[in-house]
Design brief:
Helix content is 41%, strand content 14%. The chain has a four-stranded mixed beta sheet, with helices on one face. The protein is extended and about 90 Å long.
Length: 347
């Protein structure tokens, strides 16, 4: 007789009933699986079924080693040094079969040609790869290395023609529209870029720029012995504070533009967090000086007042008089008795 086991829910648990469906001999099937026979006997005794269900679930699990069950195995791989050797040998023109005999895996066995091809393909896809192992786990990056490089090239190519912002990058590169603005911003940071202010420097245009670059390249080719004989002359203006308020502004200016303060802006108007006046750098009594710098020594001359509590401006006549009166003495102070000194000055 053949029997089958049927589950029936009763209250909190469930009991098992036997349903006899035919008159075929079932002894062989029951005795071949002792756990099934035990389950049938327990159902007659009226025991709760959680234990029976646990037994059936264990019976259904396939043990390790049974056909159809995948068993995790570990195997040796190429390390970073071996991958680097493979890439270098390939760049030198060595065939793949010879590369295979050159490198070894961590267990000193030879890699397959498929492994060599995988290393070379990874390097061709990302030339900045240095053979490091892939980092398992986590979500794959939203942008590939090639897409990040394309984003970086876009910034370099167009930041002098347009205001390159994150929305602008998404407008110019369609694949950036598939990710958020924060993802693009993080990609720019990963490329070594940052949203900073433009430097306040005078820009050089047209032919003057080409001439200055040519002159700079010539200077870089000069030997150090020649450069040690160069002297530099220039002038500048200092502004002395006239009142305590101007002095406070100049002291605050010396502390820099940035300060650590509360991110919520609660202490933004505290006195120690308020910046100086925008006129602090060029506000006060002007004092003009002119000097010469050479061989690590600075010599200078303070221009006299012109009668209105201000120093005089430098002009051609005053500069000629300054050269005749002070430059010979300054040269001896900086260079000693050297006969030849090259003078470098702004135009």
């Amino acid at each position: 007789m053949t029997c089958s086991v049927v589950s029936r829910s009763v209250g909190q648990g469930s009991h098992l009933d036997l349903v006899f469906v035919s008159t075929v001999d079932c002894r062989r099937h029951l005795w071949s699986k002792p756990l099934v026979l035990a389950t049938v006997l327990l159902s007659f005794l009226g025991l709760c079924s959680p234990f029976c269900q646990m037994g059936l679930s264990r019976m259904q699990k396939k043990p390790a080693g049974v056909k159809g069950v995948k068993v995790k195995t570990k195997f040796a791989r190429l390390d970073s040094f071996a991958r680097g050797m493979s890439i270098g040998a390939s760049l030198a023109g060595m065939p793949r079969k010879d590369i295979r005999t050159l490198v070894t895996k961590t267990d000193q066995s030879k890699p397959t040609l498929r492994a060599i091809d995988g290393v070379l393909a990874t390097y061709r896809a990302d030339p900045s790869w240095r053979g490091q192992d892939s980092k398992a786990g986590g979500r794959p990056p939203a942008l590939t290395a090639a897409e990040k490089m394309q984003l970086k090239k876009l910034v370099f190519a167009e930041r002098a023609k347009a205001k390159v912002t994150v929305p602008y990058c998404q407008k110019r590169l369609p694949f950036l529209r598939l990710v958020s603005e924060e993802t693009v911003r993080q990609a720019l940071l990963a490329c070594g870029l940052a949203w900073l202010v433009r430097r306040a420097k005078r820009r050089i245009y047209g032919p003057d720029k080409k001439q200055r670059v040519t002159y700079s390249n010539w200077v870089k080719r000069q030997p150090q012995e020649e450069l040690d004989e160069w002297a530099y002359t220039d002038g500048t203006t200092w502004y002395l504070a006239r009142t305590m308020n101007e002095l406070t502004d100049k002291e605050t200016l010396g502390l820099g533009k940035f300060v650590w303060r509360m991110a919520n802006g609660k202490d933004g108007l505290w006195e120690e967090n308020v910046g100086p006046s925008c006129y602090a750098k060029s506000q006060g009594l002007p004092v003009k000086i002119w000097g010469l710098f050479g061989n690590g020594r600075l010599e200078y001359f303070v221009l006299p007042k012109d009668g209105t509590n201000k120093t005089t401006n430098m002009n051609g006549a005053r500069y000629n008089k300054l050269v005749k009166t002070h430059f010979a003495k300054w040269r001896r102070s900086c260079f000693g008795r050297k006969a030849r000194v090259f003078l470098v000055k702004d135009q």
